[in-house]
Amino acid sequence: MAPYEPEQDTSGTGELRAGRRKAARYVVPVAVAGVAAATIGLVPALATSGDPDLPDVTAQELIEKIAASDTQQLSGNVKISTDLGLPSFGGDMAGGFAPGGGGGDEGGDGKGSAADPQSKLMELASGTHTLRVAADGPDKQKLSVLDDAAEYSLIHNGDDVWAYDSKSNEAYHSKTEGKAHGKDSGKDSAKKDLPEGVPSTPKELAEEALKAVDDTTSVKVDGTAQVAGRDAYRLVIKPKQAGSTVGQITVAVDSETGTPLKFTLSPAGGGSAVVDAGFTKVDFGKPSASTFDFTPPKGAKVTEADDAEAGKHGFKDGGKEFGGKEFGKEFEGKEFKGGQDLNGLNVIGKGWNSIAELELPGGQGLPTGGSGDVPPDAQRLLDSLGDQVSGKFGSGTVFKTRLVNALITEDGKVYAGAVTKDALVKAANAAK
To answer: Which residues, at least 6 apart from 204, have a Cβ–Cβ distance to it below 8 Å?
Structure first.
């Protein structure tokens, strides 16, 4: 086993961040706690075997290896588990609440498609799922979510993006604009058409986590492991600040290719991981060309993306502004300081302790039993979902998950982030 490396202090050094300089500071992009939690998800502990003997590397070298990784071809299986401490988002519930989702109606009432990626992939935000993935360059990718008696597949092949839900026998189709606008724009269009709200591979998750690497972060190489039969280094990322609900993030990095093989997010409160996503089988060879072929089965209901656009429930761009990566792009390269206002969103603090502050429409918080607007049974349900708190800001309710917490005050202010309840109350008091 490679010897453990002493923790590297990232404060005052630009080297550790050199490979990820373009990344934004860590910000929790939330409008409501449930959506925020759904975009962050992942978990069990690293299920690995063996301790391979690998050459020593520094944290800086390993981050640069990840940044330089350009794996164009692979196939394999990924197991992803998410335990945010929330009720399951599976099935129709996921479709109904997914931004831009078509409601997941299997009855074919014309209001949406059960195969709409924006709806279906939200299911990854809860429970344990097995994915089959394949890629052959920037124009050919396939992701399938395997169920006991059904399969959901998302296929990008050239100018076409297909999604198919075998349970409902529905397909969803969109076209990229590569032919109309040239070779390079086809790639950009494909990225736009593919859903970006829920990271679904260890590489995507690792890239998001590395955006947090700044002077509030401790990064070190913590030994080695074997994942899916591959030798890997263990990169451990931890907040230095007190008050974050994130305990640590562990990324298993393939020693040969630099490809992240496993991602584990452990909560500061202990217990099982909040998110764990990792390959159980992986092959870096070229997948068969037929892997990316798709023709809708006979009798399948096919929904064209253009026809479904009117059913997006009023969310711009399918709700991507609340979905994660597209929303996060608004913040890239910007310094966030308390009191800075950005499209109604104010970010308090920095690094892992960043707290998003915004106002609910109408300028008032949740109704309370004392107001006479809520039946007693409904009030008891609301009370069971959150903790009542008070301070200089007045009073409010903190809604908690194992990672993201949100304080909604009586005057309609929302404070949300991957921070503790006490940190939210402190932020609300300081804002007064």
So the answer is: none
